[in-house]
Specification:
Blueprint: E1 4-15, E2 27-42, E3 47-51, E4 59-67, E5 71-76, H1 86-112, E6 115-122, H2 130-135, H3 142-147, H4 168-183, H5 195-213, H6 220-227, E7 230-233, H7 241-244, H8 253-257, E8 267-270, E9 277-283, H9 290-303, H10 305-335, H11 337-348, H12 363-393, H13 400-410, E10 415-419, E11 429-434, H14 445-453, E12 460-461, E13 473-475, H15 483-492
Parallel strand pairs: 3-6
Antiparallel strand pairs: 1-2, 1-13, 2-6, 2-7, 3-4, 4-5, 7-8, 9-11, 9-12, 10-11
Helix pairs in contact: 1-4, 1-5, 4-5, 4-6, 5-6, 9-10, 9-12, 10-11, 10-12, 11-12
The protein binds adenosine-5'-triphosphate (ATP) and (3R)-3-hydroxy-3-methyl-5-(phosphonooxy)pentanoic acid (PMV).
């Protein structure tokens, strides 16, 4: 059976939380190796059946009707036990409407055939696996997480799952919308990497995500899902306003969502973490209510504009410098790989405050070390400013428990820095850790940090690293471990 598979990564906003809502400021976003996958296979009975096999009561069945020449209506097929999924329903409705507008009814009928079967799954990291580890009697470690089968069932309904904050809805929508755009012939599979295909996928996903959330956020999560790790400056919400206000669905989607539309004024500057460093996330088995945190912080900002302006300005300087410093490390690697790798070996065995202590360090290495140390200082300054923002606005941006976890973690040998990502609160926290070559003497930082975290109740690492692939990607079913098994198990039900 032919299958079309699209994946999109999750995200970690290392720096720029709250600020990135304002187009005057940027964020540093890392896309994660943890991804959402959408698999489309031919269906039957003129139905689009969408299944999320990791959840209980998560199959949604839709019919469609095309009234010539310009309207398609996607309706959920009612059944007493059917739950609703606004995100999935809107992705279908809006992407098929766009396909009808762009390619006409005959092409849309062809794309839908006798129906579509769609399976959606997310890597285990999007959901806390701590209960799984407990029930399997496994110690809390990266090795144990790797033993949990891919796309493991959560045992609960979608509304009740403990999320880790990696942006499940943005990754889900981006993979689903892009898969539908490919299925409908708006994106040729071999063109997906092109700038215009990616922009189309981004624009449609951004619109659907905003509509499903009922508001236009900064959109950094959808941008990371579409384009990969980046420095992100938001688009003006005005570009989407006509579509957000169009309750009758009569507005042209194509004129707003087309990649050529210059009103999409976001800035995406591709970025990667420095070589021989690793992103490491700590799930704290909780998850944040981002909209609530955002509304409180923005209310405080509006009521205290002078103080807020000085906090925002100071934070922005640190955030921008952190982005530049990380990019500079990659440049230093490109310029002198040997000196860079020797620096990582040295830094991996010492706490940051000891890094600059050797007066006999060769010049090229001490230059590298100074930049690593600068990155460390900046992450600490950002944490301190974020705590100040939280204190002033009465919001737990870096709650006391995370402060303890991060303080202990960032004083470990080989840890460059860390922080609370995005809106902060109880989402998984991040660290950037040195990864020295294997022949480096001594225990590397990663297992030492795992051991440290085992002393913190309710804390577990996640497998996620930085995504090697840039943004939304066409996959082969058999190349993704465990994916064919979940899709085929579903098909047998
Ligand atoms: N596996 C899935 N299958 C189908 N729909 C999903 C899935 N995961 C998420 N969703 C959709 O996304 C919605 C959750 O979106 P919400 O904005 O609350 O999460 P989020 O902020 O992206 O979460 P997080 O950043 O913590 O991962 C769900 O109600 C559902 O509609
Ligand atoms: C607070 C905010 O800037 C970041 C939220 O990030 P996260 O979903 O908590 O990772 C909100 C936004 O950018 O839409």
């Amino acid at each position: 059976m032919s299958s079309l598979v699209l994946s999109a990564p999750g995200k970690v906003l290392l720096a720029g939380g709250y600020l990135v809502l304002d187009p005057a400021y940027s964020g540093v976003v890392v896309s994660t190796s943890s991804r959402f996958y959408t698999v489309i296979t031919p269906g039957i009975n003129n139905r689009i059946v969408v299944r999320s096999p990791q959840f209980i009561n998560a199959t949604w069945s839709y019919s469609w009707s095309i009234s010539s020449p310009s309207s398609v209506v996607v309706s959920q097929v009612e059944s007493p036990e059917a739950s609703k999924n606004k995100f999935v329903h809107l992705a279908l409705q809006k992407t098929l409407s766009l396909a009808l507008e762009a390619r006409g009814p005959a092409e849309l009928e062809r794309a839908l055939g006798a129906g579509l079967d769609i399976t959606i799954v997310g890597d285990n990291d999007f959901y806390s696996q701590q209960d799984q580890l407990k029930s399997r009697n496994l110690p809390v470690s990266l090795a144990s997480l790797a033993e949990i089968p891919p796309f493991s069932p959560t045992g609960v309904e979608l509304a009740d799952v403990a999320k880790t904050g990696l942006g499940s809805s943005a990754a889900l929508i981006t993979s689903l919308v892009t898969a539908l755009l490919v299925q409908a012939g708006l994106i040729a599979p071999d063109q997906l990497a092109s700038a215009s295909a990616r922009r189309l996928a981004h624009n449609v996903a951004q619109f659907v995500h905003c509509l499903a959330q009922g508001k236009v956020g900064s959109g950094f999560d959808v941008s990371a899902a579409a384009f990969g790790s980046q420095f992100y400056t938001r688009f003006s919400p005005a570009v989407l306003q006509p579509l957000m206000d169009d309750s009758s669905g009569s507005q042209s989607l194509l004129s707003v969502l087309a990649p050529e539309n210059q009103a999409w004024d976001l800035t995406v500057t591709p970025f990667t973490l420095p070589p021989r460093t690793r992103l490491l996330l700590a799930d704290i088995h909780a998850g944040s209510n981002t909209p609530l945190l955002v509304s409180k912080v923005l209310k405080w900002r509006a009521e205290n504009s002078a103080v807020a302006h000085s906090v925002w300005t100071a934070l922005d300087q640190c955030n921008t410098s952190l982005g530049q410093t990380l990019a500079r490390l990659t440049e230093l690697y490109d310029r002198d790989e040997y000196a860079y790798v020797e620096t990582v070996r040295w830094a991996a065995g010492l706490q940051p405050r000891q890094w600059l202590a050797n007066p006999n360090m060769p010049q090229a290495q001490s230059t590298c070390l100074e930049v690593f140390y600068e990155a460390h200082l900046l992450t600490e300054q950002i944490r301190s400013k974020m705590r100040e923002m939280g204190k002033l606005s009465g919001v737990e941006i870096e709650p006391e428990k995370q402060t303890q976890l991060l303080d202990a973690s960032v004083s470990m040998a080989g840890v460059i820095g860390g922080g609370v990502p995005g809106a902060g609160g109880f989402d998984a926290v991040w660290l950037l850790v040195c990864e020295p070559p294997e022949d480096t003497p001594g225990l590397p930082p990663l297992p030492r940090i795992e051991r440290l975290w085992q002393g913190f109740a309710g804390v577990a690492p996640l497998l996620a690293q930085e995504s090697k692939a840039q943004g939304v990607t066409l996959e082969r079913l058999d190349d993704v471990p465990g994916l064919a098994a979940v899709v085929n198990a579903e098909a047998r039900v």
